[in-house]
Amino acid sequence: MAGSYNHIVTDDGNLMSNDQMMISGAMIENLGDAYEAIEELYGMIWYLAGMHPGKEKMAVEEARQNYQDGLRIAKKINQRGDE
Hints:
Layout: H1 18-22, H2 31-49, H3 56-65, H4 67-77
């Protein structure tokens, strides 16, 4: 799979910048690669939502509404200090 989660995050687990994803050698080279990465993320979201039986749709909607909080959590956990 050319487009995957591992192709859009850095070695320390941070989301790559748009520029990082577009540099030569990056694996997200076209819309097909982008779709594959999105498909993997979609599956990951629903896998995690499945940990809340009977409330999966609610969990996904809550995550959608609060994704900025998720970005802040990831930044803190991965100790990203460049922004």
